[in-house]
Amino acid sequence: MSLYHEAASILDETRAKKCSIKSLVYPAKKGKEWKSDPKALFALSTEAAKWSEVLAEVVGRSGMLGVERTLSPTLALVLTHDLFLSKRGIALPASHGLNAAVSKHKARLSAELTKARLRRGCATLDELRIKVNNGGLVASNDPEGQRKLPRHPRWVRINTLKTSLEEQLNWKFAEWQLVSTLREVLQATSSREQIYHVDEHIPNLIAIPSGADITTSVAYQTGALILQDKASCFPAYLLNSQAGEGDVVDACAAPGNKTTHLAAILAESREDDQTGNALGGKIIACEKDVARSETLDKMVKLAGAAEVVMVKAKQDFTKLPPTARVAANVTALLLDPSCSGSGIVGRDEESGITVHLPSTTPEIATVRGKKRKRPSAAAPLKPPAAPPPAEPTTEEGLPPASADDTAEKLAARLANLAAFQLRLLEHAMAFPAARKIVYSTCSVHAEENEHVVIAALRSEVAREMGWRVLRRGEQVVGMREWGLRGLRGAVEEAVGDGREGGVEVDVEELVEACLRCDKHGDDGTMGFFVVGFVRDAGEMLASNGNGGGTTAPPRVESPEDNGGDDEEWKGFAD
Ligand SMILES: C[S@@+](CC[C@H](N)C(=O)[O-])C[C@H]1O[C@@H](n2cnc3c(N)ncnc32)[C@H](O)[C@@H]1O
């Protein structure tokens, strides 16, 4: 019994305090002890919250709350959720008062659920489930919202180390239909809808409906297809390393999505080379974490990249001396360090969930969008005292990293991360033969992005070595054409009112050089940031002449190796 009461109290509290379910179930400081298993409690509360818009309608229209006085609106929500949406049904004996109170109304509730589903244009409960999971639901009386789409397709990178786009389109996707817009993929309502869209920015990348599962296919299991968010393909593509240009360091490589993408681009450039010379160029993939090094190794092998990738397991990038023999021919570096992960779709998303409550009096069909109350035989219970539903708070409309993060805590956390990221970037800039660096994060925070870029440009090593940003006009075509650039306000704020350290930052140039992906936009990507740095051949302003002897920036330990966008390897997927 406690599971349902506890889940209901969590939903009440999340509405009242505008905090996340996670922070209530797993409080940072020792707080309330739950009787239920926290995992089950978290799962039920988040699922019921996600479904609350539909269930509030179902419960409200059924009139159940007018009759069952033992049920509060949130208790009715969680029980109705399990009655219809949990495989095992309500986890209470049929004779239990709570189970009986809801099951008694099953026929009416079921009829209302069918109507709610049809109102949302879903032929089956599975289709409705996909819509709910994609966050594509909105109030049924909101005609604009009815057309709202899920935001994220499934991105599939064709691994050209093992296959080709043409081969996969003629084989794995032979029965599928090509559509010309991403919107059509997002509109797919059924996981069985076999359509794909070929991306216009990143070569060898396609989008398929979010419910489509390719993980059981041979192509996926043999590493020919890799599930990788479009945004996560930007760094390797922007770096655009070509055979014959020297070696590349992937500084923070596990689980290896970008490493294998880099390897594929490098291998393709070899094939394109007409000279017939065996051109050199290997990828040195560093990973500090032991377990993640193993994952990296596994992924590199499965992707068919082992020939070109040298995995440096348990290698802290900051301890790889720029002047080491292995780095002598390193001309490019990809730096995708641990970050807050605030751009990851799904992470902390639940802190922005709105819990909808059923009305305690049944409602009947809407008339021109306005609801009429059906006169109820039973006297209505007193209306719920809870305040209005929680909305995502924060500047830029983003949910906080965690509901426990006060502005102060978040600022401290970001400052810590930014110091670590800057330290890595400065280290990358010290490689004497390096000509190009790509820096990326799956964070939406300017502190980890534009601000780090400006601090890096103003660093001693950047000035000594002559690093500048890779201008938009110099970028590979798909990146040049990408519309979303750096945040002007963030750049202006960090640049301040003048030169610092003798470095003049051109705001316009910097804004245009940076690329952003919007987690909540229409491009179907996660939140992401990428920028390139270059220095011209021969540029070496350092007095010591070897570029490796710059003043070492203060030591900052990796603050939290949360692994950013790719926490755990579950096959080839972000
Ligand atoms: C965002 S993830 C990298 C994701 C990877 N680039 C991909 O696309 O699959 C960051 C990784 O950097 C590793 N890392 C953190 N600090 C490091 C350091 N100083 N040297 C090397 N690796 C580090 C973390 O363990 C984590 O695996």
UniProtKB/TrEMBL annotation:
Annotated S-adenosyl-L-methionine binding lies at C252, A253, A254, P255, G256, N257, K258, E287, D316, D336
Query: Catalytic residues per the record?
Result: C442 (nucleophile)
InterPro entries, per this entry? MeTrfase_RsmB-F_NOP2_cat (IPR049560), MeTrfase_RsmB-F_NOP2_dom (IPR001678), NSUN5_7_fdxn-like (IPR049561), NSUN5_RCM1_N (IPR048889), RCMT (IPR023267), SAM-dependent_MTases_sf (IPR029063)
Q: Where is this region: Disordered?
A: 358-405, 542-574
Its Gene Ontology cellular component terms are: nucleolus
Can you give the residue ranges of the SAM-dependent MTase RsmB/NOP-type domain? Answer: 144-536
Gene Ontology molecular function, alphabetical: RNA binding; RNA methyltransferase activity
- What keywords would UniProt list here? Methyltransferase, RNA-binding, S-adenosyl-L-methionine, Transferase
Family annotation (Gene3D superfamilies): Sun protein, domain 3, Vaccinia Virus protein VP39
Query: To which protein family does this belong?
Result: Belongs to the class I-like SAM-binding methyltransferase superfamily. RsmB/NOP family.
State the name under which the record lists this protein: SAM-dependent MTase RsmB/NOP-type domain-containing protein
What is the protein's species of origin?
Friedmanniomyces endolithicus
